[in-house]
UniProtKB/TrEMBL annotation:
<dbReference type="InterPro" id="IPR017927">
    <property type="entry name" value="FAD-bd_FR_type"/>
</dbReference>
<feature type="domain" description="FAD-binding FR-type">
    <location>
        <begin position="2"/>
        <end position="106"/>
    </location>
</feature>
<dbReference type="Pfam" id="PF00175">
    <property type="entry name" value="NAD_binding_1"/>
</dbReference>
<dbReference type="InterPro" id="IPR050415">
    <property type="entry name" value="MRET"/>
</dbReference>
<dbReference type="Pfam" id="PF00111">
    <property type="entry name" value="Fer2"/>
</dbReference>
<dbReference type="InterPro" id="IPR036010">
    <property type="entry name" value="2Fe-2S_ferredoxin-like_sf"/>
</dbReference>
<keyword id="KW-0411">Iron-sulfur</keyword>
<dbReference type="GO" id="GO:0050660">
    <property type="term" value="F:flavin adenine dinucleotide binding"/>
</dbReference>
<dbReference type="InterPro" id="IPR008333">
    <property type="entry name" value="Cbr1-like_FAD-bd_dom"/>
</dbReference>
<keyword id="KW-0408">Iron</keyword>
<keyword id="KW-0001">2Fe-2S</keyword>
<dbReference type="InterPro" id="IPR001041">
    <property type="entry name" value="2Fe-2S_ferredoxin-type"/>
</dbReference>
<dbReference type="Pfam" id="PF00970">
    <property type="entry name" value="FAD_binding_6"/>
</dbReference>
<dbReference type="InterPro" id="IPR001433">
    <property type="entry name" value="OxRdtase_FAD/NAD-bd"/>
</dbReference>
<protein>
    <submittedName>
        <fullName>Ferredoxin--NADP reductase</fullName>
    </submittedName>
</protein>
<keyword id="KW-0274">FAD</keyword>
<dbReference type="InterPro" id="IPR006058">
    <property type="entry name" value="2Fe2S_fd_BS"/>
</dbReference>
């Protein structure tokens, strides 16, 4: 189970008018704990107005950089993002959980690869980590980035990306896409079907892409995936992570055999097992937290995998799943923030993942 460590803020840099990057001081005895793979995220925890708040933010540096650094874009009604952008100061302390996540890039310098990445807005954060890692550790691999924003002023890491492009001009190309300003050498509009076709089938038509990395809003992810699938791209070559998912729909009741809509649930977390009754209208995570169990969680929106657990008895239905594969679901893995029990009894193990 992930534990939190108190880390002080080393540096805060203003990336755009509504986004900052934050780096942390990591003590020597925690260096191994906070070692990470390109594309992973960390969970930040603090108390704001008397309430505990947890949020996941992707690391935006390469694993060999020696840094632990994330970027946070302020979003409308965003409690933590507003606090970070307006109140957090160098020297302040946050609780930080070790890196996690399945959207990862594993470098292999014995292979030469062509990589294409599609990112929109703050979706650039894990993609930037992947790009840096690939450029540093796969000395012959080439990377194509398609990056969508409203304008250049809204573009996170714009100067850093341009510097990388200059430093690796033979290996790294960028196609900017701006939806609210027509810029030279950029595509005007959004990342849509025509954009993907232009980049893959026109501008880089002679390049065989070995792996695709996509990060951004759900609509963009589906658009790019659908185009790639139409071009017979194997699913194993497409990797993606959402930073914002569509609002989930309510789960329809499939529990006619369960009286009064309740389930007797047995939960194991940190080697402690607890049994209690819960309403099937609640998610398994909500019910566990109501019982004061120290169940892991962060986004509570089905985007991260912090609340992952395994069903060892019984069944549950997830209202949405943006992470787990069909085979993982078949093995009993669930996102507990999205899972509602559908049997009279269920056993859930947070430790067996």
């Amino acid at each position: 189970m992930a534990s939190f460590h108190k880390l002080s803020v080393k540096n805060i840099n203003r990336e755009t008018s509504k986004a900052i990057s934050i780096s942390f001081n990591v003590p020597e005895n925690l260096k191994d704990t906070f070692a990470f793979q390109a594309g992973q995220y960390i969970t930040l925890k603090t108390e704001i107005d008397g309430h505990e708040v947890r949020r996941d933010y992707s690391l935006c540096v390469s694993p060999k950089s020696g840094e632990l650094k994330v970027a946070i874009k302020e979003v409308q009604d965003g409690t933590f993002s507003a606090y970070a952008n307006t109140t957090l100061k160098v020297g302040d302390t946050l609780e930080v959980a070790p890196p996690k996540g399945r959207f990862i890039f594993e470098p292999n310098d014995s292979k030469t690869k062509n990589i294409a990445a599609f990112a929109a807005g703050s979706g650039i954060t894990p993609v930037l980590s992947i790009i840096k890692c690939a450029l540093e550790e796969e000395v012959n691999s080439k990377i194509i980035l398609v990056y969508g924003n409203k304008t250049t002023d809204d573009t996170m890491f714009l100067n850093e990306l341009l510097e990388l492009q200059h430093a690796y001009k033979e290996r790294f190309t960028i196609q900017f896409v701006f939806s609210q300003r027509d810029e030279e050498d950029a595509i005007f509009g959004r990342i849509e079907k025509s954009t993907v076709n232009y980049v893959i089938k026109n501008e880089h038509k002679d390049v065989l892409i070995d792996a695709y990395y996509l990060c951004g809003p759900e609509a963009m992810i589906h658009t790019v995936k659908d185009v790639l699938t139409d071009h017979n791209t194997e699913a194993s070559r497409i990797h993606y992570e959402l930073f914002k998912a569509a609002k989930p729909t309510e789960v329809e009741s499939t529990t006619e055999s369960v009286e009064k809509g309740t389930t007797k649930i047995t939960v194991t977390v940190d080697d402690e097992t607890t049994t209690f009754d819960m309403s099937q209208k609640q998610t398994i995570l909500e019910a566990s937290l109501d019982e004061d169990l120290d169940a892991p969680y962060s986004c509570q929106g089905g985007i991260c995998s912090s609340c992952l657990a395994r069903i060892t008895e019984g069944e549950a239905s997830m209202r949405q799943n943006n992470i787990l594969t069909e085979s993982e679901v078949a093995e009993g893995l669930i996102l507990t923030c999205q899972a509602h029990p559908t049997t009279p009894t269920i056993t859930v193990d947070f430790d067996d993942v």
